[in-house]
Amino acid sequence: MLSLLLLLLFGMALAQQAVLGEADSLLYEGNKIIYTGHVKFVRGDGVLTADKVIIYLDEKKKAKWAEAEGNVRYHDSKRKARANRATYDFQKEILTLTGNARVEEGPNFVEADEIIYYKKEDRAVAVSKGQRVRTFYVEEKGEQGKPNKKGE
């Protein structure tokens, strides 16, 4: 569950689908593109918003690293996520949410100071320093109240 949720934050930039970006201002400086003020990216029904987004480019002008700062929010028809800051390494495929990080799907959620998702390994780590990691999961039931075939 967590892997599906986290991938969507910056994974929207990986797919071959159009992405609309909006901001109060945009600055292109050779190896980076900086969106500032009411930043909004839309891909399909997924929407990412933040105060600032910086996309770092490689020599071929392809995205290699992205970071979103300030009031980072993501939502689509099935899930929501929030954090103070988010980074995504396009080459290593690692997403990091920091500062009041929370990822939700329906009633299910995980909250932590930092949530790191390693896409290649399909592995996630949630860590909190000042308070505990919190999760909530509602088990899906199959027919007659028994777990479904997946064991969920």
Just give the CATH class: Mainly Beta
CATH superfamily membership, which one? Lipopolysaccharide (LPS) transport protein A like domain
- Tell me how many strands there are: 10
Class derived from helix and strand content: mainly beta
Could you give the distance between the termini? 11 Å
Strand content: over 45%
The CATH topology label is lipopolysaccharide transport protein A fold
Overview of the molecule:
It is built from one helix and ten strands, in the order αββββββββββ. Strands 1, 2, 3, 4, 5, 6, 7, 8, 9 and 10 form a ten-stranded antiparallel beta sheet that branches. The chain has one domain (about 1-140): Sandwich (lipopolysaccharide transport protein A fold). Helices cover about 5% and strands about 55% of the residues. The model is unreliable at about 1-10 (pLDDT under 50). About 25% of the residues are buried. The chain is globular and about 50 Å long.
